[in-house]
Amino acid sequence: MTPEAQRSLEKADNCLTTARAELAINLGSEAGRNAYLAAFHAARAFIFELTGRVVKRHESVHREFHRLAKDEPAIDRSFPPFLSQGYNMKAIADYDTSPGSFVSSEEAAAAIETASRFVDCIRRVLTPGGGHTP
Known about the structure:
This protein is mostly helical. It has one domain (about 5-125): Up-down Bundle (Four Helix Bundle (Hemerythrin (Met), subunit A)), CATH 1.20.120. Helices cover about 70% and strands about 0% of the residues. It has helices spanning about 5-25, 30-50, 60-70, 80-95, 105-125. Helix 2 (about 30-50) packs parallel to helix 5.
């Protein structure tokens, strides 16, 4: 695994740790945001490992991950749509000021569980002998 991909996975792990801590103190929106960011950074690791390109924009990461993941049988088919769904949690946490705009603890917990599986899957796929061979 390249150092760039490894750093992205480390960032993903840090986001998961933060999301779990935020959930523990009932900060659902923030926990949901960090769950999404964990998956986002794992997707960036996957993209870099396969293409050698650093992709930073959320929309570009979503699009490129969708494109590349479809050819990787080890990637759960629920992961590409999770990026779009997770981004909605980030948008709620960062931008939405309308009444009732928050991510519940239950939604955040589910996002953390999915993001954790996402990060673990990408790590397995990118580990030599664990799946994809770049």
